[in-house]
Amino acid sequence: MGVFDGPIRDIAELRPPRWGRVREVDDVVPWQLVDQAGRPVEPVYRYLRDLVAQGKSLGTVRTYAYVLQRWWRFLIAVGVAWDRATSAEVRDYVLWLRHTAKPGATLRKASAATAGTVNPITRKRYPGDEYQTSTIVHSNAVVHGFYEFWIERGAGPVVNPVPHERARGGRPQAHHNPMEPYRAQGRMRYNPRKPKRRPRAIPDALWVQLFGAMRSNRDRAILALDVSTGARAAELLGMRGADIDWGGQLICVRRKGTKASQWLPASPDAFVWLRLYLAELGELGPDDPVWQTLRQRRRGAGELERQPLSYDAWRAVLRRANAALGTNWSTHDMRHTCAIRMVRDQRLSLRDVQVILGHGHLTSTEVYLVEDDQEVIDRVLDHLADREQQPAKRSAATAPGYDAGDLAVLFGAG
Q1: Topology of domain 204-366, per CATH?
Q2: Is the Cα dihedral 243, 244, 248, 253 positive or negative?
Q3: Which of 200, 205, 215, 377 has the maximum number of C-beta atoms within 10 A of its C-beta?
Q4: Superkingdom, according to UniProt (predicted)?
Q5: What is the CA radius of gyration of the chain?
């Protein structure tokens, strides 16, 4: 009888309960996972509190809370306490994520017919009902970090249930030189292989259609700035009145992650649309948000006034444009388009593009060194057309020993 690493569970029959919820509170930890009684889950609360102290963004804290909620629900379904989890539970958790539908799949209406299919215009795949590979990889990273936090404090399981792949030839770092930094231990054992995605620029003709689908000068200004600066949508939406340099045609954004301010050059066309939008908006103070709702709204008991444009509201603008055009462009496609356009400009170095995109490493920028599929197709079609014409040209030549005039009379040509 061999040694088993846990029971063989029927993954298809697992039905995790809809236990707990993630709520926003006025606390040092703004997002908390609470149980059925509304009490914060202590192990998760302490971990999230540590993340806040590390300076993690509120969005990161919120995302981690939801990931740990999903992990907690799975542990409840299999009847294992959080501090008794092993790699067997993580293995089954990954198998369950691969074979279950996301909670929102049953709520689909208009998008149900396109879920998981490829758009014939953009050639991009719509999000499906299953968990994506990147979601599983991110989930494993969050759970791994959660248990690392508790193991460092002498609590939880003795061994992290989210292990790295076994090192060949012995334990990891067995012959590490203390004078050199530790190397990364490689991928986690149950991380699925992530497919390599090639970034694609929006073709010029389709870009004109998308820009024409914008209904206001505000939306045109955001789109034009997005595709000329390469800034992320969330970075653009955080702009203030003082972040515009009209003379230098620059805008200032706060970079994701580092929160460092960076001035970016924008196209003259983008500044034209920005000026038209601000003329409609009226007076803008140096600390006022640049991007605001088109209509006045009341927040709480306050007066009617324009509200800052949120990321979800900007995504709704794109959804309306996509519905009208039959496309599925995303906010990040603008950044890809800008990056690929700059990389193909021989006057710009790869280092220039890296600085504009705000990449920490040049390898992140190198992914844009790709050939455009449509350009490759056009060149191959020209090649095939030339191949078709070459035999005709060769047959038109007169072989030695024959008179071209006689052949023309004989075959009715000329």
Answers
A1: hpI Integrase; Chain A (1.10.443)
A2: positive
A3: 200
A4: Bacteria
A5: 29
Handedness of CA 381, 382, 383, 384 (dihedral sign): positive
Q: Is the pTM of this model over 0.70?
A: yes
Give pairs for 191-194: CB < 8 Å, separation 24+.
191/136, 191/137, 191/140, 192/94, 192/98, 192/133, 192/136, 192/137, 193/133, 194/133, 194/134, 194/137
* Cβ-based neighbour number of residue 117 at 10 Å: 11
Amino acid 62 reads: R
Task: Give the bridge partners for 306, in sequence order.
Answer: 296
Contact 308, 238 (CB under 8 A): no
* Domain ranges for the chain: 11-152, 204-366, 373-411
Task: For tokens 């088993």, name the residue.
Answer: 4
- What digits encode the pLDDT tens for the residues 37-89? 999 999 999 999 999 999 998 889 999 999 999 999 999 999 999 999 999 99
For residue 92, give the nearest of 4, 146, 12 by alpha carbon: 12
Counting other chains too, the contacts that 114-117 makes at CB distance below 8 Å and 24 or more residues apart are: 114/328
